[in-house]
Amino acid sequence: MKIVLLESLGISDEILQSYAEALEKEGHRFTAYERTEDTARQIEEAKDSDIIIIANMPLKGEVIKACPDLKYIDVAFTGVDHVDLEAAKGKGIKVSNASGYSTVAVAELTIAMMLNLLRNVRAVEDACRNGGTKSGLVGSELEGKTVALFGTGAIGSRVAELAHAFGAKIIAYNGFSKKDDTDLITYLPIKELMEQADIVSLHCPVTDQSRNIINAKTLAYMKPTAYLINEARGPVVDSRALADALNSGKIAGAGIDVFETEPPLNTAHPLLHAKNTIVTPHVAFATRESMRKRAAIVFDNIHTFLAGNQQNIIL
């Protein structure tokens, strides 16, 4: 089979070559390309492939439909909303993701954002560099705070464990599933959840149920001393409503790693100019360790598929 990688997996050439050689020893062809947003070029590179590997590059139905031999899409990412799943389903193409590779990476950056916001790190650094002091910038501790989670899958659960280790109380939204309370997590309706939270942390996929779940109405339930962190997907949050809440002092601050589109962002994006906001260009998943974990899952997905089975099933 012909296997085509359409963008970098963030690993060294030597590691990638070792994976390619393993496939080639089994009689398969492996070709890697640089990422492009040009649909015509994507079609040219993928048109005779049996298997396509992508990370977070959008894969349109136009490209999928132009690949008559395509049997399998291997997504080196947890979320798959950048893939036209309807087009894949219509052609009977199987799709897998790389769930689990970034659990540690995302959870650790979530905690880092919590601590940075609570301790005013950005503001006190600016003060120090400009000859100032801590005056007016004394922070707070994570211990004793209530952390509210949207999504308690692998990443959300790891955030819960880490925040609890700091002495925080953990609550979670009960509207995505009917999970029972545990010794660690208490599930609550959205209004009660938001009213109690000192920190709201998002770790859910984009679905009809979660899209814009953080909006003007739900933000209004939050304390003026509370913070919001989004390391899930951009469309879970109404960015304009969040920027308005930040600029008007309805909430205290936010840490945002994901947006409606992938960076580079339009520099006029409202969250780039909102008060007390940490913004990062979708880096939560990206560590040296997570990239190696991801590659291992991606190529294991392929070997499993070639053996007649499928794992990490999306379609």
From TrEMBL:
GO terms for molecular function: NAD binding; oxidoreductase activity, acting on the CH-OH group of donors, NAD or NADP as acceptor. Signal peptide: none annotated. CDD domains: GDH_like_1 (cd12161). The keyword Kinase does not apply. Residues 111-284 form the D-isomer specific 2-hydroxyacid dehydrogenase NAD-binding domain. Belongs to the D-isomer specific 2-hydroxyacid dehydrogenase family. This is Putative glycerate dehydrogenase. It comes from Anaeroglobus geminatus F0357. The lineage of its organism: Bacteria, Bacillati, Bacillota, Negativicutes, Veillonellales.
